[in-house]
Amino acid sequence: MRKRALLAATALASLITIPGHAQTTGAAGQPAPQATTAQAGAPQQLEDIVVTAERRQETTQKTPIAITAFSGDTLQQRGVSNSTDLNNMVPGLAVGNNGGGSVQIAIRGIGSTNDTEVGDPAVAFNVDGVYMARSRAAIGSLYDIDRIEVLRGPQGTLYGRNATAGSINVITKRPSEKFEGAAALDYGNYNSLQTSGMINVPVTDTLAVRAAFQTSRHEGYTNNGLSNNYNDEDSQAGRLQIQLTPSETFKALLAFDYFHGGGTGAASAPTGQYAQFGSPWTFPVSRDGSEDHTNKGVTLTTDWDLSFATLTYVGSYREDSDFRRGGSTQSGTCAAPSGPLCAATIFRSDENQTSHELRLANSDGPLKWVGGLYYFKENNDVLFALDPIAGITSLAFVQPKVTEESKAAFAQATYGLTDSLRLTGGLRYTEDTKARTGATEAFGHIVGDTYVGGSALYRNDANLTWHSTNWKAGAEYDLAPDSMLYASVGTGYKAGGYGDGEPPNNNPYKPEKLTAYEVGVKNQFMDKRVQLNLTGFYYDYRDFQVSAIGQVAGQASTVTVNAGTAEVYGTEVEGAVLLTPDDRVDGSVSYIHARYTDFVLASGDVFNPGKAVYTGNTLAKSPEWTINLGYQHMWDMASGAMITARVDSVYVVTQNLDYRNFAVTEQKAYTKTNLSLAYDDADRRWRVMAYVRNLENNAVLVVASPDTNGSGNRLAGSGSYAPPRTYGVKVSATF
What we know:
- This protein is an all-beta fold.
- It has one domain: Maltoporin, Chain A (Beta Barrel), CATH 2.40.170.20.
- The protein has two helices and 40 strands.
- The strands form eight sheets. It has a 22-stranded antiparallel beta barrel.
C-alpha cells in the first residue's frame, strides 16, 4: 500500500507542477536522421535529443519511459571516453570496473556481480543495435559518438533477456553527405595522453565512408612498489563505416571496429584489515601484471522502405580475446583477499558471438508497431589458473567449451485512441540454452601462454534450457502540447545458469524475473526554456541472482544463488533551466528503497555456516539518495569567440556494494566535482578546454567484496576505486 501511495503522490505532484500556459514550437517530436537537437539553431531553448529507444525515432520528451540521453558534444564536454565515466551521471546508474578487466553496471540497485563467462549482466549494453554479451566489451572506447541512451527499468519486450535493470545504447555517428574531419589531443596528469580523430568522405552520391580512431594511455593510479603500476591505460581503437544508399528506399551500412587494451591492467585494492597503508592508491602487489585485450567485430545494418513498413536487419559477428597476468594485493603478512600465499593469477578467454535481428516496423498513422525475430550464439574458451611455480600450476579452471544460445520473437504496438491518448502493448517469447564442458584441474603446465594437461579434481559440465514470455502494457496522455503523463507495467527476465561441478551438484540457479510498475510525467515550460521530468517506480523482484566466491569440492569458485524476493521502489526528478541565453542549470535527484524481503541460504555460506539470513539487507549499489547539480555560463566575445565554464557536482549518500552489507564493503557518503573551462574560436573550428575531474580527490569505491578465501573474515576484503583527481588540457579542431 505504501508503494502504491508513493506512485500516486508522484503523479499528483507532477500534475501540480504543470502550468496552464505551456506551449509548443512544433519542432519537438519530429524525427531526425541524427541525434543533434530538435531545436537546432535555437540557443534559447533546451535541447531535446532524438532517440530510438523504442525502435522508432522520437525525442526524449516524447518517449514514454524513464530515459536519459547525452549527445556526442555533451559527452566530450563532460570528459566521457569510456563507459565507467558514466558513473553517477544518470539517476540510479552505477558503473565501475571490477579490477579484473570487466565492467559492472547497475540501475536502480539492480545489477550483476557474476561477470565470469557463465554469468550475465542485468543491464544490456548495446552498440549500434548489437548486444554485447561479455561485460569486457563495455570497456571499449567511446569516440565519434552521436548519442548515448540510458533506459531505466526492465526492457524485456524490445531488448529481451538480460535487460532486467535497463539498457545502455551507444549510437555512433554514421557517414554523411558532407566532407568533414576532426582531431583532438588531450594531455593531463599521470602522464595522460589521449588522441582522437575522424574523417567523413562522401565518395559518390550513393556512397559515403567514415573512419574514426582514439588512443588513450596514462600511468597507473596505483603505486604497487614494483617496476610497474596497476590501474593504468594503454588502449587503441578504430572504426570504419561504409554506407551505401543506392535508392531512396534502401540503404546499407557496413561497419568494422577494433579495440585493444594493453599495459599493466587493473588491480583491486585491499580494504578493511588488509588496508594497512592508509591509501587505496598505495599497496604492494605480489608481481607485475600485464593485459592483452582485443575486441573486434563487423556489423551489417540494412533498412528497406516497403511503403507500408520498414524492414531492418542488424547482423553482427564479434570476437573478444583477453589474456592477463595479475598479482595479488598483499598486507604485511601476505594474508590477502586472494589467499594466504598471495599467488599471482593468469586468465585467458577467447570468445566469439553471432547475432541476427530482423525487424518490420511502421511509425506512421495512429498505429505504430514493430515486430521481429532475434537469434544469438556465443562460444567461449576460458582458462583461469594460479600462476605457475617452476611451470606447474597448483589450481586451474579449464573450460574449453562454454556456449550460450538465445532465440526470440517479439512485437510491440502503440495505438492513438485520440490525439492525446495512446495505449501500448508488447510481447516477447525467449528460449535460452547454456552449456559447458570443462574441469577444475591441478598440476598442469603453462608453456608460454598455453595450458597443457593436468589432473582433474572434478568435472564442470552443464546443459540447461529456459523459456520466458515477457510483456508490457502502457498508456500515455498529453496534458498539454509539451507535457505528457505516462504509466506502464512490464516484466524483465534474466536467464538462469550454473556453477562448477556436475549435475545435479553444479549449483544450478533459476532465472530472475521482475515486474515493474512505473508512472511519470515529462514537462517543458516557458517556450522550452524549463524542463522537469518526474518518475515513480515500484519493482516486484523474484529469484534475484547474487554471486560471490564460495567453495566447490574444497576449492574457491564463483557461486550464484537466488534470493527469494526483493522490493525496490523510488522516485527520480530530472530538470534543466535556461536562466538566460548564457546561463544553464541542470540536475537530478534520485531516491531508491531497495531491500531483500526474503533471502535465506538454508545451507549457509562461509560467513554463516549452517544458515545465512540476509533478509532486510539493502541491494548492492542502491544509495538511498543521489543528487546531481550542474551550472554552465557562456561569455560571447566581441570577436565572435566564446568562453564556456561548467561545474558539475554529485552527492551520494552512504551505500553498500555487496549484498551481505558488511562494513568492509561500505562506501561512505561523498561528493565529486568536475570543472571545465573552454574557449571556442569565432568560426567554431577549434577549441581549447582545461578541466579538473574529482576535484575533491576522493577515493570512491565502485566495486567491493569481503574476504571470501574460506576464513569467513568479515573485517577484510578488496575493491576497485574510481579514478583519483585528474586534470589536463584538451585541444580539438574540426574541418
